[in-house]
Amino acid sequence: MLLRARQQTVEFPRRPLVMGIVNINDDSFCGDGTLDPAAALAQAEQQLREGADIIDIGAESARTNREAIGVDEEIDRLRPFLEKWPELKARFNAPLLSINTWRSDVIAGVLPLGGDIINDISGLPDAFNAKLCAEHGAALLIMHSVGRPKVPHTHVSYENIMDTLDHFFEQRLVMAESVGLPRESIILDPGIDFAKQREDNLTIYRDLERLHRFGRPILLPVSRKTVIGDVLGVPAVERDPGTIACIAAGMTRGAQIFRVHHVKAAVQAVKMLWAVTG
């Protein structure tokens, strides 16, 4: 299985990729965001030193108790990082850069500046973002969710979450391919915590193998999630041990990419688990 992103290709099976989170905002739920481009670049550099394969930058928190920022503001926050990224990329064996955004106007504004992957939390309600990725040769990460981002969806329930994911990804893959985005440029994300309850999230971990039928890399956004807090009864900053447990569960069920805050711990866990099971 291949993942094509701009000028780079990743071939699976291989050790799972670790995606490090860099928040270029001041309202990250973990309190690790920054509006200082130099500080964001320093965070990315540290994560690359710790072994991150992908850096995921986002200028707007997904938290639903915060107002959305404007399109121009989001682009302005991302631009200084994107302009400096080629220097880091050259120094660290060509890591991938993911841009965490969902509005088409932002994607159209930033893809000419760089980025290998668009991490779209919108659930791809239409084909616009897929078309933009196709035009620029970028990969698209399609995350399952319900309704518009930045709006709480805690009321949503499913008769069977895995059946829902099957139907959702089948539709979205057809939509993305219809506007010219190759299947080899698509990553799937079941959307842990997004419009899901505790049992939905735990079921996804247990039955993740069902999603392999699509033949695409699966990203698990495991880091410090609410479901970990629900199970362990700890705040976000104390959820790294639970995050490692979720990585272990995901690897035993074939996940290919893990999105995390604590890169060093995640990389070590992935490498050790791969040595034992890979």
What can be said about this structure in brief?
The protein is α/β, with parallel strands linked by helices.
- End-to-end separation: 16 Å
Q: Which range does the strand content fall in?
A: 15-25%
Any guess at the CATH architecture?
Alpha-Beta Barrel
Strand order of the largest sheet: 8-7-6-5-4-3-10-9
Total DSSP E strands: 10
Outline the low-pLDDT stretches.
Answer: none
Order of helices and strands: EEEHEHEHEHEHEHEHHEH
* CATH fold group: TIM Barrel
Shape: globular
Mean pLDDT, rounded to whole units? 92
| Overall number of structural domains | 1
* The CATH homology group name: Dihydropteroate synthase-like
Query: What structural category characterises the helix and strand content?
Result: alpha/beta
Q: CATH class, anyone?
A: Alpha Beta
Query: Main β-sheet, in a few words?
Result: 8 strands, parallel
Q: Percent range for helical residues?
A: 40-55%
Radius of gyration, whole Å: 17 Å
Counting DSSP H or I runs of 4 or more residues, the number of helices is 9
